[in-house]
Amino acid sequence: MRASLILGYGNPLRSDDGVAYKAAIALESELSSAEVCVVAAHQLLPEHGELASRVARVLFLDASHGGVPGEIRCQAILRDPYFQPGTLTHDLHPSGVLELASRYFHAEPEAWLLTLTGANFELGESFSAAVAAACPEYLDRIRAWARG
Fold this sequence. Notes:
CATH class: Alpha Beta
Number of domains: 1
Number of helices: 4
Order of helices and strands: EHEHEEHEH
Low-confidence stretches: none
Distance between the termini: 16 Å
Helix content: 25-40%
């Protein structure tokens, strides 16, 4: 069993929305090991509940719309016992992934959400100046979490 999962998600074709996806891609070869699994996804899926059930801790990575562009925030995430699976398309949040891990796989990993606030979510593959400037620190925070 791997100890940790890093799950970065977002749309890499929507400018700053792709920062977490691209961070996971950038760090995958560096951090992946017998202890750490790194996954990049366009959105959270029900299957991620099964993946989260196999680890002791999860770090979700995402872009944020709220806050000052370039701001990095980390918060603990708990499962959502009121989560009701619906269509799940574009509507699954980290708390729902944790609930699926608990409900169907009887696992409750510790979890955190590390966000980087974006400024531009329009079509494009380039980051805004604020996100580009904050990326090195964002990557360092992910590396530090992976080291424990």
